[in-house]
Amino acid sequence: MKPEDLFNSLNKFVIDNYDVEVKSKSRKREVVQLRCAVSMLILNNTSCTLFEIGRLVGKNHCVIVHYKSMIDVYDRFDLTFRKQHQDLKLYTDSILEVDCDDLVRSAKMVINYMQRRIDGLNKTVSKIQLDRDERKDTEYSEQEAVQQT
Fold first, then answer.
1. What tens digit of pLDDT does each residue of 15-65 get?
2. Number of domains making up the chain
């Protein structure tokens, strides 16, 4: 899943459930903590850089570094945040699980295609080996005929 798509899904979830816009300029605790949770979920589930995550949530990469250091503190001491964070994790897992199912299906298709290609190559190798063996037999018969004369 693309980081932008994951962010948009998480942002929609946050808006629908907590009536908070992750990309807002607000510095209220609830907004900051939800932005932190969303940022960390994107960081842990994509190959995004801190700079890219900062751009997605409307902050710079330094803020994301700060979030990395604060998420455990928020989780440990703020029960409301812990619940919100768990809800976001479950939602993220459900999104990525569906995405994984698609990946598994695609991988199976690729494996089947590759197996057919391997079977075809094995047949080609067998034909080449038969041709080589026939040539060797022919050469051996010719050498035998030359030696007998």
1. 999 999 999 999 999 999 999 999 999 999 998 999 999 999 999 999 999
2. 1
**How many whole angstroms separate alpha carbon 17 and alpha carbon 71?**
20
Q: Dump strand ranges (E) for 29-135.
A: none
> Is 122 inside any structural domain?
no
> What CATH number is given to the structural domain containing 56?
1.10.1750.10
Contact assessment for residue 21 and residue 11, using Cβ atoms and an 8 Å cutoff: yes
* pTM confidence score: 0.66
User: pLDDT tens digits, residue range 80-139?
Assistant: 999 999 999 999 988 887 666 777 777 888 898 899 999 999 999 999 999 888 887 777
Distance in angstroms (rounded) separating the CA atoms of residues 12 and 2: 16
Residue 134 in domain: no
In a domain, 7, yes or no: yes
* Spatial CB neighbours of 9, under 8 Å, sequence gap ≥ 6: 91, 95
* Lookup result for tokens 């250091």: 69
| Domain interval for residue 43 | 3-104
